[in-house]
Design a protein that fits this description.
The protein is α/β, with parallel strands linked by helices and 467 residues long. Helices cover 39% and strands 12% of the residues. The chain is globular, with a radius of gyration of 22 Å. It binds ligand F0G. The site of ligand F0G has 15 residues, from helix 4 and helix 5.
Length: 467
């Protein structure tokens, strides 16, 4: 009798660790002082004062020895470096898009795309759910960002295998109401980060593509977490169980005209991104703009060694052993919290577990920011840094008014290949302990905030003293 690591109950990390980074233990009194000094905004904490940092899975992953060795061999030529050609061929191998324009990160690709596509006061951009930077870029250029997620996507407790799907009836009615000429691009975010890291099915991607083509509208993917999305397709969508993640990825990209990508996620890199597309004329315009804002089109804001890291990382993200471990370990955390009675977005997403703070803290109204309150409580209780995805992040409207966000979530984003199962066990203990004290948590008010992407630098204070 043999027991394969694939069948065992214990999730083993499919790597061993050769370089370690110490983390700091602080006590509750210290953390209270530190958070107060950070104006009750975890973004303003020093990372060294955080024990387990789940602020984001973006750029925070551990690289492999293969990536590090590729980095040593990088070519730092300004123009035409061999590192660029490796990067270009890795992206084309997976996406099939003809033109690959490197950018320093995902939002830089968004900036280039929307600068060319959005007409102020005219354009409407449909998406399943815009990520905050995506929305901000559309609005900054005077366009309107419309989220057309299926209804199940807004119901945290409802199980559905593809809660990131776009409502294609709403998409067609939006096109008819607004007029196809006012929709320069249709976007689809895979996986849907702001909606819980939920995947989009291949059937939905195909249907969105069909509608886009019917009306002659370009269709772009926000592909940050494409590999995780492919794993969900493989394990949840009939007909894909025998396909490899790379085969699924190739099919997924084949339905689109281009994509924006933050390589800080499924590029397994600490920095980097790209814009990839098929249209020759559009690519020419994107390259010109990239020279203005990012750099020469064969490095686009990245060092040669960054492009090497991404070229290797994109394929590592599609490795079956890695994806099985990645998605299983996020689900493991989700199961621990669910078993303790904590409401999370179900099923568990790819890169993160999202706690439903509206459900956990019904005594805190949305505009007193329950998800922010819970985020701070997790830091105070156990040195965990998470991120609010609620009314601080999304409540401020372009006209300056405030409206409650559709959901009040706390995202526990898991960096790639960084934490082990014992870190996750500790994390679950902290969340469960906080949950048991939940009636003592209070609301917050914003004392100072910028008008764009305010959550990054807003200053707040608890409504009942120091929590
Ligand atoms: N699109 C999605 C779906 C994202 O999740 C992000 C970043 C971006 C675009 C922008 O990419 O950061 O490289 O400029 N998400 C990070 C997060 C910041 O924490 O979820 P970027």
């Amino acid at each position: 009798m043999t027991l394969s690591p694939l069948d065992s109950k214990t999730i083993i990390e499919p790597f061993r660790i050769r370089s370690v980074e110490p983390i700091q233990f602080t006590d509750m009194e210290e953390r209270k002082r530190l958070l107060k000094e950070a104006r009750w905004n975890p973004f303003l904490l020093k990372a060294e004062d955080v024990l387990i940092d789940l602020l984001t899975d973006s750029g925070t992953g551990a690289m492999s020895s293969r990536q590090w060795s590729a980095m040593i061999e990088s070519d730092e030529s300004y123009a035409g470096s061999s590192s660029y050609y490796k990067f270009d061929s890795a992206v084309r191998d997976i996406t099939g898009f003809r033109h690959v324009i490197p950018t320093h990160q995902g939002r830089a690709a968004e900036n280039i795309l929307f600068s060319l596509m959005v007409s102020a006061g005219q354009s409407v951009i449909p998406n399943n759910t815009h990520f905050d930077t995506t929305r901000a870029h559309v609005e900054h250029k005077g366009g309107e960002a419309r989220d057309l997620l299926i209804a199940e996507g807004y119901r945290p407790q409802t199980d559905h295998p593809f809660k990131g799907n776009m409502d294609t009836d709403k998409l067609e009615s939006t096109i008819r109401d607004v007029g196809a000429d006012r929709i320069p691009v249709i976007m689809l975010t895979v996986t849907n980060n702001s909606g819980g890291g939920q995947p989009v099915s291949m059937a939905n991607i195909r249907e969105v593509s069909r509608i886009a083509r019917k009306y002659g509208i370009p269709f772009f993917l926000d592909a940050c977490r494409f590999a995780e999305n492919c794993w969900f397709i493989k394990t949840r969508e009939p007909g894909f169980e025998h396909s490899s993640p790379i085969e699924i990825a190739r099919e997924l990209f084949s339905y689109a005209d281009g994509c924006t990508m933050s390589a800080k996620k499924d590029g397994m890199s600490n920095i980097g991104g790209f814009l990839a597309l098929n249209d020759d004329d559009m690519a020419r315009q994107c390259r010109s703009l990239s020279i203005l804002t990012e750099g020469f089109p064969t490095y686009g804001g990245m060092a040669g060694y960054d492009m090497e890291a991404v070229a290797a990382g994109l394929h590592e993200a599609l490795d079956e052993g890695y994806l099985r471990y990645r998605i299983r370990s996020t689900a493991y955390l989700g199961e621990k919290l669910t078993d303790a009675g904590i409401a999370i977005i179900r099923p568990t997403g790819g890169h993160a577990v999202y706690i439903d703070a509206r459900e956990m803290l019904p005594h805190i109204p949305s505009l007193q920011y329950p998800a922010w309150s819970l985020t701070n409580a997790l830091y105070l209780t156990g040195g965990i840094r998470a991120v609010e995805i609620g009314s601080v992040m999304f409540g401020l409207q372009p006209d300056g008014t405030e409206r409650e966000a559709p959901m009040e979530l706390v995202r526990l984003a898991i960096p790639r290949r960084v934490y082990t199962q014992s870190h996750i066990d500790y994390l679950a203990e902290v969340v469960i302990h906080t949950y048991r004290q939940r009636e003592h948590l209070c609301g917050y008010r914003i004392t100072d905030a910028p008008s764009v992407l305010r959550h990054f630098s807003a200053e707040l204070e608890p409504l009942e003293g120091d929590q």
